[in-house]
Amino acid sequence: AGMFQGLSEKLQETFKRLKSKGKLTEADVNEAMREVRMALLEADVNFKVVKDFVAKVKERSIGQEVLESLSPGQQVIKIVNEEMVALMGGVSSKINISSKPPTVIMLVGLQGAGKTTHGAKLANMLKKQGKHPLLVACDIYRPAAIKQLEVLGEQIKVPVFSLGQENPVKIAAASLQHANSQGLDVVIIDTAGRLHINEELMGELREIKVSVKPHEILLVVDAMTGQDAVNVAESFHNELGVDGIILTKLDGDTRGGAALSVKAVTGCPIKFAGVGEKMDAIEPFFPERMASRILG
Ligand code: GDP
C-alpha cells in the first residue's frame, strides 16, 4: 500500500459511478457525497474539515449548470478536485528568503518527526540552488543529535555549527555571527524536540525565536501520525507562530489525514514533503499535484 491508497481507491470508485451515469439527479450527488465523506473520514481527515469540504462540493454541484451540463459526472469530479486543491492551500508556498543575508530558518517539531534529517535535506536543496547554508546544532538534549547533524553535514558538504551542550539560545545567537563572518547566507537551526509538547520546550523555542528573529519557522510533522500531526501543528502554531510545515514520511503507508487537514485547521501551508530517508528525498509541496495523485 502506498501513499493515500485507500482514499484514492474509494474516490475513484465513486467517480467511476458518477461518470457512468448520463444525467445526474440531486439524489445521485448526495449519494456520491456520502461516499466521499466516508472515504475522507476513513483516511483520518479532520471531522470538521470533511464536513465543510463536502458541503462546499455539494453546494457547487447541485446547481442547474452542473446537473444540466453535457457531462455532469465530470463536472462534479472537477469540483472535488478544485476544492481539494483549495483545501491544501491552493498554490505552492516558497521559503521566505531575506533580502539581507543570512536568512534564518528555525526548524521545530516533536522528537522523531524528522527534524534533523529535514534540516540537512533543506540545506542540501538550498546548496544546489546556489546558496551557502549553515546547519546549527541546537538539539542538545537528544543523545547523538549533534553527531547525527555533523554526519549529515559531512555527507552533503555543508558546515555544521555546534557548541556542544552549551545553552541553545547562545548557540543560535553565536551561529549568526559565525555565518556572517564566513559569508554563509542561510542559517538552518535544528532545535530540540520532545516526545510531547510541554511548556519547557515551548519556552526554549520562544527564547531562540526572540534571539535570532527567524525569517521562517518551519514545523516538521510526521504524516504517519494523522490527526495527531494536525493537533501538534495547532499547538506549535498557537504557542510559537509557524510559517510553514514540512510534512514527512509521505513515502510510507500514510492515509492522507494530515496532508488534507493541516492547512485548513491551522492556516499554515505545507511547504515541503519528505519522501524518504535519503538526502534528496524532499520535494516542494504542490497542492495541485497532490490532489491529482489522490484523485487519480
Ligand atoms: P528528529 O528527532 O525530529 O530530529 O527526527 P530524525 O531526523 O532523527 O528522524 C527520525 C527518523 O525518521 C530517522 O530514522 C529518519 O531517517 C526517518 N525519516 C525522517 N524523514 C523521513 C521521511 O521523509 N521518510 C522516511 N521513510 N523516513 C524518514
Entry keywords:
single chain, 296 residues, alpha/beta, eight-stranded mixed β-sheet, 8 strands, 53% helix, binds guanosine-5'-diphosphate, GTP binding, 7S RNA binding, GTPase activity
Task: Summarize the model shown.
Keywords: Cytoplasm, GTP-binding, Hydrolase, Nucleotide-binding, Ribonucleoprotein, RNA-binding, Signal recognition particle. This protein is of the alpha/beta class. It has twelve helices and eight strands.
Mean pLDDT: 95
From the alpha-carbon coordinates, what is the Rg to the nearest angstrom?
Answer: 21 Å
Low-confidence stretches: none
Note the total helix count: 12
Task: State the secondary-structure class.
Answer: alpha/beta
List of distinct ligands in this structure: guanosine-5'-diphosphate
| Amount of beta strand | 5-15%
Distance between the termini: 15 Å
